[in-house]
Amino acid sequence: MDWLGIHFLTDLQQSGLSPVEHSHTFLLVAFSYLIATAAGYTALSLADVAVADDRRTRMLWRWIGAFCLGGGIWSMHFLAMMAFVMPIPVYYDHRLTALSLVIAIMASLLAMVMIGRPALTVRQYIGAAISIGLGVTAMHYIGMAAMQSAATAYYDPWLFALSIVVSMLASLGSMMLILKLRQPNNPAPLKLKLAASLALGAGIISMHFSGMAAVTFTLPAGSTFDAGAHVDNHSPYLGIATAFISLIIISCSLVAVWAGKKLESQRRDLERVNALLHELDSTQASLHNVAHFDALTGLHNRYSFNKEIQMRLDEHAAQGTSMALLFLDLDNFKRINDSLGHDAGDELLRVVAQRLKSALRERDLIARLGGDEFCILANVEENYEAELLGRRILQKMKEPIILAGRKMVITTSIGASLFPQDATTGEDLMKHADLALYKSKANGRNMLYFFQEQLRSKASLELKMEEELRQALSRNNLTVYYQPVFDLSSGKVCHVEALVRWQHPEQGLLLPGNFIDIATANGFIADIDRWVIRRACRDIKKLHRQGFKIGVAVNCCVRSLERETLVSDVQGALSQARLEPQFLELEVTENALMANIDQVIGQLRQLRELGVRLSIDDFGTGYSSLAYLSQLPLDAIKVDRSFIQDIPNNARDLDLAEAIIAMGHKLHLKVIAEGVETQQQITFLIDNQCDLAQGFLPSRPLPFEKLQAFLLDEIGNNAFSQSHLA
Q1: Nearest-angstrom CA–CA distance, 444 and 414
Q2: What is the pLDDT of residues 37-48, one digit of tens each?
Q3: N or C: lower Cβ tally within 10 Å for the chain?
Q4: Are 343 and 403 spatial neighbours (Cβ–Cβ below 8 Å)?
Q5: Which residues pair with 413 in a beta bridge?
Q6: pLDDT, tens only, 529-571
Q7: pTM for the full model?
Q8: DSSP secondary structure letter of residue 116
Q9: 231 phi and psi angles, rounded to 5 deg
């Protein structure tokens, strides 16, 4: 039976054909296995580089692998055929031999393409194994067909089919092994790779010898040959030379693979270095941005501004030109930030930054120094240009802003200083602009104010006074004056108000208006409040021991109300003086009350639970607290002196004072009028049933020693009730 020119024979004995005895040359068989193993090792090595990222490089390595693997398989086959010895002359058809080599290379190319993929599905594995197995089988049997001799090759059909199956299974196993060991960035250990190469070599040579097992060479019936004769079909040196040439080609390929891997490794190292350099550049740029620019607004930050101002000062000094520095601070930013939240505050700062930038010229520099503080450096030829810039900014800021769904207008206060008129260094320019800004805020906000020399003198004086005031507080050199508060129904002193004084060594007795703002601005006003509370409790306890059972009222600033230790401080002062809580009254201004109403209410309720009395001072002059009056644990409200001083001449003040008194009574609160200086005012207050009064008419503030004498005189003569309540 013939198929595609291949002769199949199932029963050789019945055919009458004479089989030709044959043998194998062990040395050439060993060389063929060595070449198969070398081809397998090459395939394993090329698998690592066949997955290169570059398409051209990937195809180059695949073709190199195809020539090495295909050439190795073909060389193994050719050597094994040369090792096949028969006692008849054997020749080879060059064309068929070359065709078998081409088929081996193409089958190997398909193998290299498949092992160059990241992963294979089961269907792809099976399809590739069938294709490669058929290709290798075709190479083998075309090579067999290239053998020319007097004998005819007959194949056992079952062994023929088995050789094809073996070829496919060997192809499948080889691909799976190569893909399993392929690790481009982490090559397999050499020992494991060599062991795998031996297995691949065995698989490759098994494809040949399974095919050889299927063939039988026969001579026609009646033909004779000398079975013992030796026919030198091939020189052994030809086989050895072929083996060495094949090994050299494979070795060169391995060297190329090694060099390629080294180059690829260097390329990857270079890419990593470039990536690290790029990352370093990006990091450096990010660090530069972090170091020089504000993350929220994108403006220059304080560090960058300080560097820039020095460079520009040097430039302007060399050119003899002028420059203006404008210091800006948003008005009431804290209140907006607290009421609408920090996200709204951040959005406000971003909007303000954009508005400020739009108001500047090309060469002007703007920076956010922190919080709601901005600073601008502007080149000016004349001083009026700085004023025009400041006015333009003020006007720009008056445009409404939509914030948290609310339309509002945010104003800013500006302080300005000029180079070189006001200062020649960046530090001094900043200080002087800051002083001008402080003056702008003190004058009503939403203003532009330029530095003047007297501001520096005032600042120096305030700095000196701050140091002296701190010393006076630490050395217990402050003192307390007490102003009596009278019951208008009886004319008797019901309690006193404690008022701090400072006996300055050079300026004499200073009233609170001369130093309280300094203490507030520098953060130790609450310490003064605490000192006054302790002193007042101690003095009132002395009066109690002398028989004067009166209370004392002490002013409590917003900083004191914000301190978490306020309640414990008051409790400590009462305990130290052994004074009953009902004899201490804390006066809180409306502004202090409304600054942080939620926290304040909590503090006041705790104080009220102690038994301390509470009142609102300067009622009607600050933020409206009417909405909270019913929630506050109050005992009294004090009508501010501004509503009393023009009575009876100002009809509006008459109406306001009368309304406040009536409202206080409706809320069951005592009403205290302060700043009483005339008999007409006393008469008005009595007529409107005001409860208590204090002022210069009944008594000025007195030091503790004189207060004792006053109380003795007041009890003995009842002077106020006789002369003013009649």
Answers
A1: 12
A2: 777 677 666 666
A3: C
A4: no
A5: 329
A6: 999 999 999 999 999 999 999 999 999 887 888 788 889 999 9
A7: 0.54
A8: T
A9: -105, 120
